[in-house]
Amino acid sequence: MNGKSMDIKQNDIETLRELFPYIFSEDKIDLKKFQIAFNYDVDSANERYTLNWAGKSDAFKILQEGTTATLKPQPELSVNFNATENAFIEGENLEVLKILQKSYYNKIKCIIIDPPYNTGSDSFIYPDRFKENLEDYEKRVGERDEEGYLMKEGLFRKNSRENGHYHSNWLNMMLPRLFLARNLLRDDGVIFVHIDDNEVHNLRLLMNEIFGEENFVACVSWHKNYASANDSKTFSNVLDYILIYQKSEKFERNLLPRTEKQNSLYKYDSNDGKGLWRSDNLSVKTYSIEYDYPIFNPNTGIAYHLPKGRCWLTNKNTIQEWIKEGRIFFGQTGNGAPQLKRYLNEVQQGVVPITYWSYEDCGHNDEARKEIKLLFENPPFDTPKPTRLIKKITQIGADKDSIILDFFAGSATTAHAVLDLNKEDNGNRKFILVQLPELCNEDSEAYKAGYKTIADISRERIRRVIQKIGNGGFKAYKLSPSNFKIWRSEEITEENLEKQMEMFIDPVKPESLVENMLVELMLKSGYQLTDKVENRGDFYYINNELVIALTKMDLEIAAKIIALQPQKVITLDRLFAGNDELKTNTALQMRDAGVELRVV
Hints:
This protein is of the alpha/beta class. It folds into four domains: 1-48, no CATH class; 55-255 and 353-480, Vaccinia Virus protein VP39 (Rossmann fold, 3-Layer(aba) Sandwich), CATH 3.40.50.150; 260-346, no CATH class; 500-599, Trna Endonuclease, Chain: A, domain 1. Helices cover 33% and strands 18% of the residues. Strands 3-22-4-21-20-5-8-10-9-19 form a ten-stranded mixed beta sheet, sandwiched between helices. A five-stranded mixed beta sheet has the order 23-24-25-26-27, sandwiched between helices. The chain has a four-stranded antiparallel beta sheet with strand order 11-12-18-17. Strand 20, helix 14 and strand 21 form a beta-alpha-beta unit. The longest helix has 19 residues, at 166-184.
């Protein structure tokens, strides 16, 4: 246990080694072998279609840096903490995504994010200095909260259009987050990214690079405003976009539910036991001479021919069978031209999504604001998305028992939509939301109502939705420093070595709580935030395979643990109280029982 998140770079190298072992030499990637294996023309390397910008290589370095941070449980801010499988995490989303890599790698079915649009007036986090150490960075940016975590003034910088790296800054912010998000997606997973005209072109190219151009699914145009802006100097923009990418070809989009309007077309019933039907065209444009013949009305004897270039839907024999079965309709009086009876129970029980979404079908900005107003007397958020929009996305991209991730949570519309859908169709979808504790402006309605940060608003909205629908819950967590002392070799000198060694006799920080250490050790062992945890008194039993002992250890407790036959046991060195004999006997007994023991 090195206390760090998953090593992204090493993980990618191991994936390459598994797929292409022949490009390695002396445990390293041999670029010459790589070029030979893939017939790569070095001379034309610079003559290729690519997206490049200032700071791109450094953004990859930021992505590959691990983190020692953890997530601290906050039961007091949660709803049904011990029973729910939903999670809300307060913290900077890049750090949180790194923490989640081990636990949720290849586990998320659907990701929905609404990142900053880079309008020229918004602020967001982007790495603009890559070589300074953390201490220098914190000194430079200054402001921190009560736990030492950087708040709005430190984390956020306005990215104005006058900035020479206007687009580059935004891309540097998005690249590592999208890269880590892709890692979390299942092979049949999908990501939906909201965006507007400012960066839709760059985002498409960036996602082509990260997800692969072949995994582009669609670019949806959402009609976000039902009225034009009369004060617009040029055009009134009424559209936003949603870029959709799959993890791989294993993704299968779901059909959307049929609407009452669509079903209302099926209004006839012939009392033939086949149910409701509507009349449909019996001809097609794709011409076949076999399907070109006259159809005779059995009531009038009149022959019906089609115009040149068109033919009937099927051959003559099948049409005669359909006439006998009553599947051909000759009008209300029986004296008209032939039409097909299309029965409701025979049509596809769902609707194929299209790339234009009207506000009638999935809501608009004003509807979203009204939704917030129904939950809060004074709406604390100005730019939410309508829940109907997020419901539609969820219905297309997620199954009824999927995990949905949103790491730009904002007003928590994604949680609202998931909870509503579960209520409507008895689903078991789970959400994980991540939101930075961005400070609310002191003159805002949110601040006046007592909400210090956007994360406060997000949590409160989820609570009120749960109260309204009478079901659900969420576990609240906060991004926090590790509960364990982190050995930093770069800070060790000849003068302080002895002192540092003494400090690490017990690697647990004095202020660390058992429940916080439990969550950290679970996450860093690859377990999820909502995995089953049993408190067995002297230790915790997770998913019937992992034991974590944090308060006491002796041979009797070791025997109880071995009797459970877990795969792995994690405990603290300090529990042995310097008794090397006890420690050795415990380790031997567990080894003989086939149980892996890790001591922190």
